[in-house]
TrEMBL record, chain A:
Keywords: 4Fe-4S, Electron transport, Iron, Iron-sulfur, Metal-binding, Repeat, Transport. One of its GO terms (biological process) is lactate metabolic process. Residues 249-335 form the Lactate utilization protein B C-terminal domain. Pfam families: Fer4_8, LUD_dom, LutB_C. This is Lactate utilization protein B. Residues 17-159 form the LUD domain. SUPFAM superfamilies: alpha-helical ferredoxin, NagB/RpiA/CoA transferase-like. One of its GO terms (molecular function) is metal ion binding. Residues 174-241 form the 4Fe-4S ferredoxin-type domain. It comes from Oceanobacillus sojae. InterPro entries: 4Fe4S_Fe-S-bd (IPR017896), 4Fe4S_Fe_S_CS (IPR017900), FTHF_cligase-like_sf (IPR024185), Helical_ferredxn (IPR009051), LUD_dom (IPR003741), LutB/LldF (IPR004452), LutB_C (IPR024569), NagB/RpiA_transferase-like (IPR037171). It comes from the Bacteria.
From TrEMBL, chain B:
InterPro entries: FTHF_cligase-like_sf (IPR024185), LUD_dom (IPR003741), LutC (IPR022823), NagB/RpiA_transferase-like (IPR037171). The gene is lutC. Is involved in L-lactate degradation and allows cells to grow with lactate as the sole carbon source. It comes from the Bacteria. GO terms for biological process: lactate metabolic process. It holds the Pfam family LUD_dom. Residues 49-232 form the LUD domain. Belongs to the LutC/YkgG family. This is Lactate utilization protein C. Gene3D superfamilies: NagB/RpiA/CoA transferase-like.
Length: 339, 233
């Protein structure tokens, strides 16, 4: 298994990134985990940590009866499963134990080897910037007669787990995801809050799109708001999933169909709608705004605004309303007055 | 082979897509854009070898080029560099063609040589685990990524390239193609013509590595720590 996934397993800690799962841990923490759980006594240099893990896991690989892997791509034409790794962990797991179980998301399927090749090239480039990772392992069924390596008993489990509900919907393109994490790496929100904040094994923009689809809006209604809609994710996505458009649509559904926005926000939005759709109220506000804000205005800028303005002026100044509103300027101009 | 829940799975898909279950095969479209076929398209073998040699620097792999007649000397030199005392190698038909059978015979006077032997069963894996160097032939070599495609058979186990600390790939010059596209196309065409792919095809690109601990690159994780490619004319 991945060294870092082993670290997380020892620590009973969930992953925070889909390509580098222990991104949130530093070397000192990893050394402490090894020391506490496995009696490790060496330094915290990554080389020594990795060589300790190599030694420990080798014994597990050699003695295991069953190997369990995921599946990056399954090739329909020959019934093959492709695994993309750098450490060689998938090679070990698919070579040594006699029984193998591969767990495959139902959308991992490609028609032919030629299609697999295109997607693997996209994946390795977008995930880690490599032409190909160190190991692209393709296995086709059990070992054949007289072969030694590979399983003699092979099980493929195709997992739906909510994916089929996405088929045929406006979110279907989210199933194109090849799990490269490019959207996660460029996301300014992910970079600030980290992977655990998403409360899902899929963090970042793709997580914010997928998690509510797989697990419902109830527990994940904040996720579609965890985005500045800057669209960096769409630019990075190798399979061109319109991620931020999906996020906007999620927000729309949460507010309009699921009615899951907070009560205070509902009341505020209702009030705003009434005020903004009443010309007299609107006119009056623009007229008195300048006078009303006078106590907080200094040199044409509001510094410490009251009420809803406070959130803005806490971090930057707000320009004071102009002496003359656009409407009154327009009316004057129409009458032939000075523009 | 048993397939469980197939019908309910497929009818669920059809229902979600709002159409009846498809009974006829899907026809694969002709892709109008295929940039992968343009990479190093008209390169000669010599040019591809240059690409491979350059890329070896990126993937922490030593590159050696030699003639068939000098293969033994080149191999011995690499083995000396690895301070090898034991070798596991595939029992490949090409061993004779490349004179490796004689090389192994001579080397066996001074070190442990094990040729993959299906009669020994799992013992092969145990030997591979404690051996210094694994040696096998590349079946298809990808210049762009510096990758050797290794096809398993009864005389060539996957453990050879995986378990020992060091791995040496013998690359016959004629196995070199521009990139993975050509390898995938060949396997696809063979499959269409009725040749099922080997039980495992491993595309190996240099030594195993990981950058998962604080993004520091570590070369040599579960698989080999050092790798050499020997391109043979």
């Amino acid at each position: 298994m991945f060294i870092t996934k082993w670290i997380l397993q020892l620590d009973e800690d969930p992953p925070s990134h889909i390509v580098t799962p222990a991104l949130h841990k530093n070397r000192e923490q990893i050394r402490d985990t090894f020391r506490d759980k496995k009696g490790y006594a060496k330094s915290d240099t990554p080389e020594e940590l990795a060589s300790f893990a190599r030694e420990q896991l080798r014994q597990d690989f050699l003695s295991a009866d069953v190997g369990i892997t995921g599946c990056n791509f399954a090739i329909a034409e020959s019934g093959s499963v492709t695994l993309v790794t750098n450490e060689g962990n998938a090679e070990m797991i698919t070579s040594l134990p006699d029984t193998q179980i591969s767990v495959m998301g139902m959308e991992r399927l490609v028609p032919t080897w030629e299609d697999m090749e295109v997607l693997v090239s996209l994946l390795t480039r977008a995930a880690v910037g490599q032409k190909l990772t160190s190991y692209i392992t393709t296995i086709t069924g059990t070992r054949i007669e007289e072969e030694i390596d590979g399983p003699d008993d092979y099980h493929l489990v195709i997992v739906d787990n909510g994916r089929s509900k996405i088929l045929g919907t406006e979110f279907q393109s989210a199933l194109h995801c090849i799990r490269c994490a490019a959207c996660i790496n460029v996301c300014p929100v992910y970079r600030h809050i980290g992977g655990h904040a998403y409360n899902s094994i899929y963090p970042g923009p793709i997580g914010a799109v997928l998690t509510p689809l797989l697990d419902g809006y109830e527990d994940h209604k904040e996720l579609p708001y965890a985005s500045s809609l800057c669209a960096a994710c769409i630019e990075a996505c190798p399979v061109k999933i319109p991620l931020h458009e999906h996020l906007i649509r999620h927000r729309e559904i949460i507010v309009e169909e699921e009615k899951k926005s907070p009560v205070s926000e509902k009341i505020m939005m209702k009030g705003f709608a009434q005020w903004a759709s009443n010309p007299a109220a609107y006119k009056l506000s623009t007229k008195v705004a300048r006078t009303a804000l006078k106590p907080w205005t200094k040199d044409e800028y509001v510094e410490n605004g009251p009420g809803p303005l406070k959130g803005w002026t806490d971090v930057r100044d707000f320009p004071a309303p102009a002496k003359q509103s656009f409407r009154s300027w327009w009316n004057k101009r129409q009458k032939g007055g000075e523009a | 082979m048993a397939i469980q829940n197939r019908d309910s799975f497929l009818s669920n898909l059809a229902a979600n897509l709002g159409r009846p279950q498809k009974r006829e095969a899907v026809i694969r479209p002709e892709y109008s854009v295929q940039p992968q076929r343009e990479v190093f398209k008209d390169y000669s073998t010599e040019q591809l070898i240059e690409v491979l040699k350059e890329h070896c620097k990126v993937i922490h792999t030593d590159f050696v080029r030699t003639d068939k007649s000098d293969l033994q000397a080149a191999l011995v030199k690499v083995l000396e560099g690895y301070e090898a005392t034991s070798i596991i190698a595939s029992n490949d038909k090409r061993n004779q063609e490349y004179g490796l059978d004689k090389t192994y015979e001579e080397l066996s006077k001074e070190m442990d040589i094990h040729l993959w032997d299906p009669r020994l069963g799992k013992e092969n894996q145990v030997i591979a685990e404690r051996t210094d160097v694994g040696i096998s032939f590349s079946d298809i070599t990808l210049a762009e990524s510096g990758t050797v495609a290794l096809m398993t058979n009864k005389d060539n186990g996957r453990s050879i390239s995986l378990m020992p600390k060091c791995y040496i790939a013998i690359i016959p010059k004629e196995t070199i193609v521009p990139r993975m596209t050509q390898a995938a196309s060949k396997i696809h065409k063979d499959n269409e013509n009725g040749t099922i792919p080997p039980s495992s095809i491993c595309f190996v690109t240099g030594p195993s590595n990981s950058a998962d601990i604080e993004m520091n690159l570590i070369v040599g994780v579960h698989g080999p720590v050092k790798v050499t490619y020997i391109v043979v004319n």
